[in-house]
Sequence to fold (138 residues):
Amino acid sequence: MLEKIAASSDIRFTVEVAPIDELFSKEDEINIYRIVQECVNNILRHSQATEARVVVNRTGDVMQITVSDNGQGFSADERAQGRRGLGLTGIAERTKMLGGTYRMTSAPGQGTTVSVSISTDSRKGEARGDGNHLDHRG
Fold:
């Protein structure tokens, strides 16, 4: 997905993806894909960025997704006035479904960063159905 977007956009994308295959159920993998997809779509639609970065890494039992851009950013006031669209709501809801945490930081002229953390250990337990859940924050 990211190679096609980078080839058809004026935004220079940097992508770093650690091997995470088979850490999640197929359903969870689709939700993770959709989170990244929506972050990238928001960059393309709204950021006016020239550079963007997508990083997926794993440290121990935590997978971290970070999507950032050097675009126009926005203020908390703009977000409170209804600028939070369906895309950001979808990211938050999917993260919650995965038992993860979600944080977005942005400021006018400073770009935007979306960070999602998901415990791989708790998701494996859920996929096996053994009820072995760790900390479900959302």
Remarks:
- Residues 26-47 form the longest helix (22 residues).
- The longest strand covers residues 51-59.
- Strands lie at 12-17, 51-59, 62-69, 101-106, 112-119.
- Residues 2-128 form a domain with the Heat Shock Protein 90 fold (CATH 3.30.565.10).
